[in-house]
Amino acid sequence: MKRWPEVVQIKEVGPRDGLQNEKNRVSTADKVAWINMLSESGVKEIEFSSFVHPKWVPQLSDAHEVGRRIKRNPKVRYSALVPNRKGLELALGAGIDGASVFMSASETHNLKNINKSIDNTYPVLEEVIGEAKKAGKHVTGYVSTVFDCPYEGKISPEEVIRVCDQLMEFGVDDLSLGDTIGTAVPSQVEALLEAVLRRYPKEKIIMHFHDTRGMAIANILSSMEYGITRFDSSIGGLGGCPYAPGAAGNVATNDILYLLHGMGIETGIDEKKVQEAAFFIQNKLGKSLPSKSLAYAAAQQ
Amino acid sequence: MKRWPEVVQIKEVGPRDGLQNEKNRVSTADKVAWINMLSESGVKEIEFSSFVHPKWVPQLSDAHEVGRRIKRNPKVRYSALVPNRKGLELALGAGIDGASVFMSASETHNLKNINKSIDNTYPVLEEVIGEAKKAGKHVTGYVSTVFDCPYEGKISPEEVIRVCDQLMEFGVDDLSLGDTIGTAVPSQVEALLEAVLRRYPKEKIIMHFHDTRGMAIANILSSMEYGITRFDSSIGGLGGCPYAPGAAGNVATNDILYLLHGMGIETGIDEKKVQEAAFFIQNKLGKSLPSKSLAYAAAQQ
Question: Is B6 on the interface with A (CB under 8 A)?
Fold first, then answer.
């Protein structure tokens, strides 16, 4: 039998990547109450909001207030998405512990998402990363569309590494590689990790899967075979797919915990508390979240 | 990178294991039309119904008529569930190519499901298997609750093998090992297959996963690592969990095809036709099926 990791670290991205794809607005008070529940679940990092311009993500326009109002657990790193220097300043004012910068491995996706070419995105991120590090903050570099792009199709490991190299050079602490449209299958994960782990230590790599086609848990399993022990996930599988309204979002924290704890892998996270937080936001949004283990738990009650 | 199988064989169990857990009745004409669609999808085996007493599964009380009315594709094996000699006679009259017998690796689950102890089930199955083989039919032995039992908890590989040994001795052609309540995680799959494959060639073993907690695709991946190339699945993930109304059923044929075809593994099955068959039954049942890749496809339309 195989050797699986003993400990895996989960970053909860529901309040950011999850919520940003939900149409029904959640009030600031509810977000704060919800993040406070997450803070007590044992999770070590929460991405609590995004400081992109509110025009792009109205759901997260209260990022500053949320950051100021949440009750901080000293064992949790509170991070937020920052697009540029202005966003970083606002985020610092809201008391972030970590900044997440982002760009795409696909030229076209980067252009559509950030409105700049990959080459023109670099100087912006170099500045943000430098400033955030100067302020003593942890910086994660998100690279999106690392497997497939909705516009360009397959993305090669070389295209991903080209972007990773730049972000590492600018000083990010780690890289989160995103299956943004949830299309990857395990053989693609293997091919990418073969290339990436020749270049970077596995501790620097976080895998970020979306469960749009139900492949995320299998992709996480494949990643763990390569020694990856850091994953992003979203309570209940919150968040959708901007390219297919109604389809599933980020891999569900509930499902990844079911997998890991079932395999005897420690996370330090209390499944019951995660379940309660999932029921809470499900009620606020007025819809069932896509996590199958959550649906099972709900049916049992 | 790992060596994955080149070809995998799928048995479509939607019309039996799927439908038997659906409350909304589907008319015989609709079942026939639906199975005829499945017959043209490229799948090599369809379990079209069950010949257990209609009192237990009213949804499948028209098994005989369905068997007589479906249009046979000579490339497809049409099998049905048979509980005993009487059921086998009815099934033979309905023109089955294969008979599936069943029992549980858990004493308590066997008692609750079949109303007999494991030891008292053996003579019944010995007779059915003997008669079915005499009639020249393919016989599959389903063993349920091979990982966990809703009454007894963990089931050991030894308990599973004890039942497998008897069924093989009685003459079944192959064994389908069922995660009946959909609780297994990949480390459990590894432990069971380590034991089972020391005893039987992998060609004799079919894995039968339910996706109740969203683990089925990862469990299939683990099974393939052990060389398993035969899986049961259900269109759209049809069928629920009798222990948790509202929870997911069998692993979805649509999701397993997404996985396999994405990894370059052949099945001979046309994904589009499976999708159409899934939309067909979804409409007849008046509800969305749990397959995430199906939900994605629906959202795209």
Answer: no
Whether B219 shows a pLDDT value over 70: the answer reads: yes
Residues in chain A predicted with pLDDT less than 70, given as ranges, are: 1
* Residue B171 covered by a domain: yes
Q: Residues of A with catalytic annotation?
A: 241
Total structural domains in chain B?
A: 1
Which structural domain, as residue segments, surrounds residue A91?
A: 9-300
Question: Could you give the CA distance from residue A19 to residue A239 in angstroms, rounded to a whole number?
Answer: 6
Structural domain contains residue A172: yes
A150 in a structural domain = yes
The answer to whether the complex's ipTM is over 0.90 is: yes
CA distance, residue A100 to nearest chain B CA (Å): 28
Query: With an 8 Å Cβ cutoff, is A151 touching chain B?
Result: no
**Which residues from B are below 8 Å from A191, CB to CB?**
1
Chain A residues near residue B248 by CB distance under 8 angstroms: 292, 295-296
Give me the pLDDT at residue B1, please: 64
Catalytic residue IDs of B: 241
> What confidence score (pLDDT) does residue A1 get?
63
Q: Is residue B3 part of a domain?
A: no
Give the CATH number of the domain where residue A21 resides: 3.20.20.70
Write the residue in A185, A217, A298 that is nearest to B214 by C-beta: A217
